[in-house]
Structure prediction request, 348 residues.
Amino acid sequence: MITIINEMDRCVREKKRGILATVIRVEGSTYQKEGAKCFFAEDGELIGLLSGGCVEGDVLEHGKEVLQTGKPKKIHYDFRGEEDQIWGLGVGCNGAIEIFIELFDPVGHHERSKLMREAFTTSQPIIIATITRDEEESKIGERWVHSNLQIGEPMDLKMKDNSEVFYDHITPVPTLYIFGAGPDAVPLVKTVKNLGWTVNVLDHRPGFVNKRNFPLADELICYERDHPASVPLSEHSYAIVMSHNFTQDQLVLKSLLHSSVPYIGVLGPTTRTNQLLHGFTIDEMQLNRIYSPIGLDIGAKTPEEIAISIAAELVNVHRGGNSMHLKQTKGKELLYTSRDHRRVIAYQ
Prediction:
């Protein structure tokens, strides 16, 4: 999402128009779910994916029409039948998607585009309601923001006063605070930045926490030894303790336990984490927020692999995953037939 926001910002600066395409309905098995978005500036390239690459080219053609007319458009793709071959891709998604395309024009439609842009950079969870069908054509594309609705309900299309309205749940971009600017934090910053997260690195050693070591970090904070920096932690923040200095890690961990962060990752074995916690008075809810050893078990060995393991755990917590292989949770029985068609092997 951050790349789309950045491209919108460029359009605002350069007074360029663009189109925003959003998946508003899915049926069956599809590559993306409701709320997936892509953006196309009139002088730029497509950013984001709505499918596995099978509809984006056609969406661009419809988007050019929206750029010319200024009128929103809704298109439907169904890959559940043999007609899927029409696209020349044979994607075999066995599903259908509906996409809403609308104009982003910071000059001609300043207020509407401003609302669109600001909604995506919210600091609190919100729900954006957009009219996608209405008897009165001028109402299509109108949107309003709700901040007091229940977050977490399925995104869907609903009828409201003879209008079709899409409710899009927008959550703030997560922020990761890495307490410790050692060499092992370098690949972690790079990996998590690739997720589109905000990443801040903190350390008490000025020789470590600098732009030379962490050119991709959003913010670098050097705090006074034995006095961990006070940062704006919230339920949308994630923290990792990895300075390799026992005293500093203990001070940081104690501070984090009194915050509302849902994830406190501690690098190192569980025995070390238990030593860090020695003498603390904490309840079960606080303990459940500590992840140690840190990361998912993918057999990681190198710093780069460990960074992927940690990033995977961050996504798992953020998205509410279950850390299992997808083939164990969403896959069906796979069948393999030999070329002579004489045997079939089934995989679970």
